[in-house]
Amino acid sequence: MTRTLSDTDRTRHRRLREQGSFDRDDLDAILAAGFLCHVGVIVDGTVMVVPTVYGSDGTTLYFHGSVASRSLTSSPNSTVCVTITHIDGLVLSRSVFEHGVNYRSAMIFGTPRLVEDPDETLAGLRCLTEQSAPGQWEYARRPNRKELAATALLALSLDEASVKIRTGPPDDGDGPDAALGLWAGVLPLQTTWGALQPDPALPADIAAPAHIASRSGAPSA
Q1: Which of 23, 110, 165, 180 is most exposed, with the fewest beta carbons within 10 Å of its own?
Q2: pTM for the complete prediction?
Q3: What is the radius of gyration, based on Cα positions, of the chain?
């Protein structure tokens, strides 16, 4: 059975409706494919868009930062828009007007809450860590009380979200511009991890753990 996203005034697709999706699985796939989001919030009458890492447990989006961050300390009382975007390629048409981008994007709306429960705080930080580096939560030292006190963790429900996806070739292959004799198509974009760069202070006999080395192709411990 297909799970659907909510259809609200903020999530309704008004432009390029053919690229819109109300399939909840599409939202989950977009969230799972990344770990960086942009949080849009109004602080003292000024719009701020802040990049930060996130983690999703399927029902809640967690994001965090310093307790000194004005955008984060204000957002528990404000509606925010969290955006995640993945670029898959440039769509190069025969005319500049028809150029575009193949992409997957999600916008999540709501009022986040400040996580104060110690157990949920650790679970949320684990979610953040595992989103970007699976296996790192069990490998690295976990935050102590002082570090937790300096961290603001916010939780945002995934109940209200908008998804758009574009795939495929240019749209002008059957139009008048097809007769121009110009090349058209898609220039794919792929993101890959590079070679590991050990900390200069790291002793030479400490190898990268398997969960990190396997993503870069480097030898592991």
Answers
A1: 180
A2: 0.88
A3: 21
